[in-house]
Amino acid sequence: MKAISMDETTQISPDAAEKITSPGWLPESMGMARVTEDVQRPMDARPGLFWAMLLFAAMSLAGMMFLTVGWQLHKGLGILGINHPVMWGSYITNFVFWVGIGHAGTLISAILLLFRQRWRNQINRTAEAMTIFAVMTAGLFPLLHVGRTWVAYWLIPYPNHRELWVNFRSPLIWDVFAVSTYFAVSAMFWFQGLIPDFATLRDRAVNKIKKFVFGVLALGWSGSSRDWNNYERAYWQFAWLATPLVLSVHSVVSFDFATALLPGWHATIFPPYFVAGAIFSGMAMVVTLLVLMRRAYHLEDYISLRHLEMMNKVILFTSLLVGYSYAMEFFTAWYSEETYERFVFMNRATGPYWATIWTMLICNVFVPQLFWFRKIRRSLRAMLVISILVNVGMWLERFNIIVTSLSREFLPANWGHYSLTVFDWAVLVGSFGFFFTFFLLFIKFFPAISMSETKMVLLKPGAGGKRADR
Q: Mutual orientation of helices 270-296 and 225-258 as an angle, nearest 10°?
């Protein structure tokens, strides 16, 4: 892997650029054999220095996080910034943030599949992987937040001799069901799409170990019409299952707040507001990953500027929805003439956390408006910066919702101030290391682009004078 340098808007060769006429926006001359070779090449090549350095950095951050977690399990939650009255701090903020990141993968895979958007075929695999790893990262935080992590399995209802059950009326239990269901369906959907590619890698493997591993993962795929028929039917069924989960998961997460009576949380707009924000942050993370990956692995013919531009339009649209939600929150607080509700929102704008909310507004509402300009929508450097800022803003959004409402609620005698300790920061930064460790391993050892689905949208499958393979 070579070092990344952003050279904007001229990533596609002039000959290829004007011949992208297939439903998947691929060059007209591309054939099946070339797709297989291009996708498999990074997997066969020896790990580059740049990839190894990134993996080392990511694993170091993840290691720092687990050391901090070990220290927390030894000393207790007191090492964190949480205290009275802010009992939910960085861990719940991180949980909501990472669950939101996981939304774009299923959106791209399932919803665009049902709408027969074939341009998704080159980017869905990366987005699905991002979903899996983001939900895995999110799942760490409720386990850590409960304090006694070793008995976290009590969150799961299971038959026991004392006939004790979890409190099904608690939104936190709804989270357990919603997130675990979402993860299970997303993982099966992701693996289902990989099966034909595993079979291709099995048939082309020269190494016995790879042949065995991919042979097991391919589940006996032979490429017969019966295999393809069953595959297509199962794939669409998973898409139908996953689509409502995109809307339900973050709606359920928003109920953690909306069902409370705390000023700033008790709002009916939270479910759609959270879903829009989740798609917003997830799309930004997908853009960040794709921009880096296409340049590092020379995938410009597969992940074109048109793909990235379409995702930037989604970011722009969801930014407007998120901005509207922010405005409605303030309007509802003012229109309700509820003293405490009005105070909470004034406190957010002018209180001790004013800098976080104004930074959030700049990152989430004002900066994405630059995507109205086509030149910026198609600039790799601009979209990389904007997508990172969006994710910074979305983390701050969750921080503002949680901390500002808890720190100053009904009684001034109960007010307090919350700030992250060095251990909070270590776990937050380490969570990115945990996520990127899995993602870097994925793009090295798994096909980062779906070979089978990309071949479905080729205009000339056997182009290039080579026989089309599987």
A: 130
Nearest 5°: phi and psi at 20?
-80, 90
Q: With a cut of 70, which residues of the chain have pLDDT below it?
A: 1-24, 459-470
Summarised one tens digit per residue, pLDDT across range 84-109 is 899 888 999 999 999 988 877 777 77
Token pair 């990141």 is at which residue?
Answer: 101
Contact between 196 and 231 under an 8 Å Cβ cutoff? The reply is yes
What does the DSSP 8-state code read for residue 27? B
- Residue 207 CA neighbour count, 13 Å, CB half: 7
- Please compute, for residue 56, the number of CA atoms within 13 A of its CA located in the half-sphere on the CB side: 7
Residue 39, both tokens: 């996708």
Q: Quick one: the chain helix, strand, coil %, rounded to 5? A: 70, 0, 30
Say if residues 371 and 312 touch (Cβ distance below 8 Å). yes
In terms of Cα–Cα distance, which of 285, 267, 274, 222 is closest to 398?
274
Tell me the three state secondary structure of residue 351: coil
Q: Pick the closest to residue 281 from 245, 322, 251, 244 (CA basis).
A: 322
User: Which residues 6+ apart lie within 8 Å of 435 measured at CB?
Assistant: 98, 133, 134, 137
Q: What pLDDT does residue 13 have?
A: 46
Whether residue 175 contacts residue 252, with contact meaning beta carbons closer than 8 Å, is answered with yes
> If you search the block for the tokens 């798609």, which residue do you land on?
279
Taking each helix axis as running N to C, give the angle between helix 270-296 and helix 305-335, from 0 to 180 degrees, rounded to the nearest 10: 160
